[in-house]
Amino acid sequence: MAFAPMGPEASFFEVLDQHRASLLATLRRSGGETAGGGTRLASSSEVLGSIESVIQDVITSVARNEAPAFTIDNRSSWENIKFEDSVGLQMASHCTTRKIKSDSLKSVKKFALILKILSMIYKLVQSNTYATKRDIYYTDSQLFGNQTVVDNIINDISCMLKMPRISLHILSTSKGLIAGNLRYLEEDGTRVHCTCGSTAVAVPSNIQGIRNLITDAKFLLIVEKDATFQRLLDDSFCNRMSPCIMVTGKGVPDLNTRLLVKKLWDTFHIPVFALVDADPHGIEIMCIYKYGSMAMSFEAHNLTVPAIRWLGLLPSDIKRLNIPRDTLIPLTKQDQLKLDSVLKRPYVTCQPFWRREMEIMADSKLKAEIQALTFLSSDYLSRVYLPNKLKFGGWI
Amino acid sequence: MPLPQACTGWVTSVSPRDKSKIPNNFSLSKPFLFRIDQELGPAPDAYLELTLPLSPSRKTGSWMPCPCLPELTGSPELEPRRLEGEEQGGGEATRGDNMQQILKYLIIHWKCETAGTSKGALLEGQLVISMEALNSKHQANTLHCVTTIASAGSIYGGLVLKKFLKEIQSLLPGFSAKLNWTSEEASYSQDISGVTPFQMIFEVDEKPRTLMTDSLVIKNFLHKIVMVHPKIKFNFSVKVDGVLSMEVFGTKNEPTLNLSNGIALVISYQHYVSKPKFATAELLCSRIHPVLGHAVMLFIPDDIAGMGLLGELILTPAAALCPCPKVFPNQLNRISSVSIFLYGPSGLPLILPGQEQPTTTVFKDTSYFIDWKKYHLCMVPSLDLNLDRDLVLPDVSYQVESSVGDQSQNMDSQGQTLLLFLFVDFHSGFPVQQPELWRVHTLLTTHLSAILMENHSVVQDSIQVAMDQALEQHHQATKDHQKFQASLSVAVNSIMSIVTGSTSNTFRKICLQALQAVDTQEFGTKLHKSFHDITRHRSLPYCSCETKQQLLPEENAEENTEDEHENSLELLAGTSGQVENKRLRQGMEETRAFHSARGPSQSEASVTPCGSRASPGGDLEDSLWQREVSNLSEWLNPGPKP
């Protein structure tokens, strides 16, 4: 049994429980999703076979005196992305592709680097060892240039082979943090307790490898920013709202944080809420947790949690709470463009309340950070705003 | 003795003192035969013979003795003077040099005539230069050579014979001429055939070796002219003891860079360097891509201005790497030599090859105008001025001094050549007249070095700008090439790592079979070679010639269609058409005088392309390139920079 500090009375969670029941009912109706669902992990031999197949194609082209090229689904165009409410953003079945040619000066380096990383993956899988993206970058940092190059190529390979990154034996160093009512065993047998006072646990690198997850949490709160997360820890939010779990991806979430949120949802089916700034960037981060990103749309089944709800900070809350105008920030041109872009995304049509909130923001031309609530009181967020929202169902 | 009103092939002569008898308004606008006999000796003299009209036998191409000669040589008034010919001494101008001067004179005249009607238009026409040599009856081991300059069309309308004679005599000090002319009425009434309205003939006894050198000098001169006058064609033939060697110098339909003022630089690379040994038969880019420097006005020192240079001299440099790096994209391009070409007003060469040239003194110091250290190059003057090549001979040549000794010398022969063109033009505020233009040319030939030295700073700046831009492309190309090679190396090594590391026999077998390799070592070698072969011509996106297809405007497409049509007609013309564009060699041996290495099948009549070497298929690209460089030239060259 997990350590359970004293939280609110049971009646506090009535609305949350109802929400959970509703989510479970929806889940049953859709019938497709099971705990731990998503794409099946490929076996080592499958991965090796796939890589050998790619190499064979290259050699066959060369033998035919044709310049080899890799064909990869184009993940930079919304035209190739389809939206499904229950899954999020996915690759369309017949999407356009792009070619990484070996005879073009523009793409020859990328062609070579794909082969380079394929050969590294091949060895990792053969030897049943794992490496982080950072490890791969440091094998030849001069060749790769920067980490982003490696990250993008790994995503391309994952998309090309249609295998999740973990199947390629590539991990990433997690930047996310987790705290609250949760225990689990890591792949190597390490027992992890996230229940603690003012410190958090790093999101593990191998999410697929963790097992024996145990929690009594009534909900999972995703916090956009580390600063807010730390403030909530300092305010003992997890204890006060116990039992609950808090996660932060420290901004745009990395794959592991998203995998963890997905795993927690798949395992426990507890309500998941997002606490983000009332600005276009915060909304986009929330959308990545909920619906996924275009770049990783090929792995949407492992990453998206459509059950996520927007808890705060809602643009409508700004007016409702009479937050002074001078604590608000005018939308920049980039903000406006981002907001327009989000409003055009396919998932916004099935989220009329989200649209309404975004329109309020667009009309006011103002944005607010979560810290704007400190104007009301330094612990207003943890003591008043969030408890009230959770108790009375203030999410959308 | 009265002169006949019309006769065929008769010859008379006039001594220099009788030149005053030539009517001032004597014009060569009508068909006639104009003959200069020159035999060089201690007291050089020459005949100038005039024959009206053309002998019909001339049309056949065989040179017949003039039937009227005996009748006329008896004239007391116009006593023909034949000189006992001797080969000229080393310090004096050769026949080749004299020929060049006369050709220069004719082109300047032509240019001035054309300027009156269409300013800035390219000169268009054809000159025939033929040399015929037979064993001399007077001297053993000597050839009696007759050189004829002729034109088709009305190129030399308005050429005043007396003036020409006077000027050409002052120009060529060892040259005197005898001239015969018919009555004014006759000269205007002989337009019967209208086929060859103009001919000029030299006769001289020469040693075979001198004949060979002269021929090469003239050929190079003609080649140099057509490099900036693409619409002029020279038919040059040499017949020695019945063995005919014919060559056509013309660059019509070749891509050019329009330099305004009636000249356009031909940008087909094969005129400047030999085809790279390692380049495949199908070259990806047959052009050079000249970068124009800004035009600068040259200050003329007082002492030179006092000699008659009353106007402005404008220098426009252009630099290009040759061949285009795309010719061998997978080779690491390096510069191995520099060729400098000097052109004066009207696009005429400023210096004469084979002599000590005052014009190029300033270029003896390789770093005088160009900071080679900036490009990590060390240049030394090159003495390799081999005339006997199909390439246009530079006025100045440098080669990269090797710091690694013998090894790189071998490499250098495969490197790129940096071409630097220096175009010097003259403006006086008024339409430049022929004498003035001639004077400018003469002064520039002797004083260009002094003028360039006087303007060291501006000339250096202008050249450096052009060089920087030309070499920037080179550096980019080298960088791209290195990137390509490094990437392919990574790709091959990665594949090798997977294949050699695989535990799947099937996979390894399939891979080895695909490349027909017996083991992984051979597989690796073949894989590397195959990758290299496949991708060898597929890089260098910077190369401007690659993007032309996308820029095709409709009007250019039409122009191109026309060009293609023209080429098709030429091709359909068959043998007769080919003769125009090819070198024709006949006879058992090409010639004893031309003992240089030529084709082995000299006993057969063979045709070898010369002059217009651009392939018809390249026209589309060419017209686009022409248009682009023309625009570039206008943009870069709005006017002289003070």
Automatic annotation (TrEMBL), chain A:
Its EC number is 5.6.2.2. It is found in: Nucleus. Residues 2-44 form the Meiosis-specific protein Spo11 domain. InterPro entries: Meiosis_Spo11, Meiotic_Spo11, Spo11/TopoVI_A, Spo11/TopoVI_A_N, Spo11/TopoVI_A_sf, TOPRIM_Topo6A/Spo11, WH-like_DNA-bd_sf. The active site is at 138 (o-(5'-phospho-dna)-tyrosine intermediate). GO terms for molecular function: ATP binding; DNA binding; DNA topoisomerase type II (double strand cut, ATP-hydrolyzing) activity; metal ion binding. Pfam families: SPO11_like (PF03533), TOP6A-Spo11_Toprim (PF21180), TP6A_N (PF04406). GO terms for biological process: female gamete generation; meiotic DNA double-strand break formation; meiotic DNA double-strand break processing; reciprocal meiotic recombination; spermatogenesis. PANTHER family: MEIOTIC RECOMBINATION PROTEIN SPO11. Component of a topoisomerase 6 complex specifically required for meiotic recombination. Together with TOP6BL, mediates DNA cleavage that forms the double-strand breaks (DSB) that initiate meiotic recombination. The complex promotes relaxation of negative and positive supercoiled DNA and DNA decatenation through cleavage and ligation cycles. Essential for the phosphorylation of SMC3, HORMAD1 and HORMAD2. This is Meiotic recombination protein SPO11. The gene is LOC111141818.
UniProtKB/TrEMBL annotation, chain B:
GO terms for biological process: meiotic DNA double-strand break formation; reciprocal meiotic recombination. It holds the Pfam family DUF4554. InterPro entries: TopoVIB-like. It comes from the Eukaryota. Signal peptide: none annotated. Residues 72-95, 553-579, 593-624 are annotated as: Disordered. Residues 555-565 have a biased composition (Acidic residues). PANTHER family: TYPE 2 DNA TOPOISOMERASE 6 SUBUNIT B-LIKE. This is Type 2 DNA topoisomerase 6 subunit B-like. The lineage of its organism: Eukaryota, Metazoa, Chordata, Craniata, Vertebrata. The gene is LOC111149654.
